[in-house]
Write a structure and sequence with these properties.
Elements lengths: L1 E9 L2 E10 L2 E6 L2 E7 L6 E7 L2 E7 L1 E2 L4 E2 L6 E2 L7 E3 L1
Parallel strand pairs: 6-10
Antiparallel strand pairs: 1-2, 2-3, 3-4, 5-6, 7-8, 9-10
């Protein structure tokens, strides 16, 4: 299982968003606590969103269809318009 993480700062407070994954399943973690688990039943990219400090945060998992693996599983974040999630792309 591959592990990736990013630190984000919201309202002056730092949080670690992590992703443990295999090609067929994975776990999203927030500050070391599992907040979502999934099994991949169909091919394609996945979005996982959750609340954090009154905002929606998201992890976008992009799968490389030729390799059957996430590529890249977690990368730099960007801010979306108000009331929309922040996504790792």
């Amino acid at each position: 299982m591959e592990k990736k993480s990013r630190t984000v700062t919201l309202d002056g407070e730092r949080h670690v968003i992590g992703l443990d994954h295999r090609p067929d399943r994975g776990t999203v973690m927030l500050d070391g606590i599992s907040i979502e688990k999934w099994e991949r039943v169909d091919p394609g990219d996945r979005d996982h969103a959750f609340p954090l400090r009154g905002r929606r945060i998201g992890v976008h998992v992009r799968y490389d269809s030729t390799a059957g693996e996430p590529s890249p599983p977690l990368s730099e974040s960007r801010s979306l318009p108000p009331n929309r999630p922040f996504f790792f792309q």
